[in-house]
Amino acid sequence: MKEEWREIAVNRFCRSLPLLMSVVLVLFSFMPLKSEIAGNARPAVGLMCVYFWLIYRPDLFNLLSVFLLGMAADTVSAAPFGSGLAAMLVMYLLVTNLVKYLNGKIFVVLWIGAAALLPVCLLTRWLVLSIYYQQFLPLSLLFFTYLTSLAFYPVIGGLNALVLNNFLQDDQ
Fold it and tell me: Is the pTM of this model over 0.90?
């Protein structure tokens, strides 16, 4: 009986690892830094995690996971509530429709895919924020967020790949 309970608990923990890893990475991305540039143009870690997990394990990272990650990211950010969630939901829609073209590709192709999809999601967030503040916000911050996101995608993808390869390969 105890072995069955342990197996169930380990199985549920492993199935929640994509969401847990994404939340941890999002929390780390909002750590206070002493640089003005880093304080304003942070990489979109949540969007990168949504992109990664929807390509590799959409069975474990579904719409509920995207919603919970968006809520967690909006809770720790200083932006109006729902702006990050809207961007993540757009990423969810884009990736679920394009996953057949991205699945099984080499890393460079996935990086190019992220480079193509991130601007749409970041523009969605910019639009939500512009509507909230009732003025068009400067696009320079969006551009630097995009560049830092592209620069950090190999790091975020590598950390997620470690979890995928070490804990989730037996589950398929």
Answer: yes
